[in-house]
Amino acid sequence: MLSARYLHLHEALGLGPMWLKRGAVVLPSATLPGNPTQIRLQKQTVLSIPQRPSEQHTGQARLKTMKVLETTAVHTRKPVPETETPLSGVSDGIAPVPAASGITKLAVVSLCPPTEDMVYGQLFHGKAGVLLDNILKAVGLDAAYVHKTSWVKTAAVGNPMPSEQAIENALGQIARELDGCRAPAVLFLGQAFVQTERQTMVETLCGSRPFFIIDHPARLLRQPELKARNWQVLKQLKRALQAGGS
């Protein structure tokens, strides 16, 4: 036997319909016996009745959880080291990595930070950064003499390739940055710089500085067979650095 109070309470809590055995008997609250022992037995019987979760209730709970996740800030970015302070005139975004030695012998420029760099708040994060440093060693250059940066400092979420307008707008900024670090040569990362529509901008940016273009280290990690063609360009860079006294 089950008191009607439990049915009303179950419904008021939003738990959906209570599933009872076919032979269960519901008593009005006024007819409950006054014997405490009998009441305890009835409570035990109620607890033993199998109940099926309400699909409506679980669905509402799931929607509520999703709303909480959407509005909760997730702290996934690591703090940027103090040495990665943005240069004067550089807009918000991932800060460039200036030459640790204070002397810049080469500037390395990518088109924009990839998603991984945006997440960690660090330019050339992870394996791509390790490969880049190894490439620099291969041409006889320590990373401490390299200024690492990106042409466009930020990228739209879900679309790592910046728009042509964003690239054109950032031309003056990256030019001031390269002049400020006094880079005698520039190494561009990514075949986007080979495209015809960007050749004029690259030439305008570098002026009399020699510049070289290779695949981005992230692509070389995915396609190691491309390293051979890039090495031909790196040998030219090495000769230019040696001729410049680097």
TrEMBL record:
The keyword Repeat does not apply. Residues 105-230 form the Uracil-DNA glycosylase-like domain. Keywords: 4Fe-4S, DNA damage, DNA repair, Hydrolase, Iron, Iron-sulfur, Metal-binding. GO terms for biological process: DNA repair. One of its GO terms (molecular function) is metal ion binding. It comes from the Bacteria. PANTHER family: TYPE-5 URACIL-DNA GLYCOSYLASE. This is Uracil-DNA glycosylase family protein. It comes from Neisseria cinerea. The lineage of its organism: Bacteria, Pseudomonadati, Pseudomonadota, Betaproteobacteria, Neisseriales.
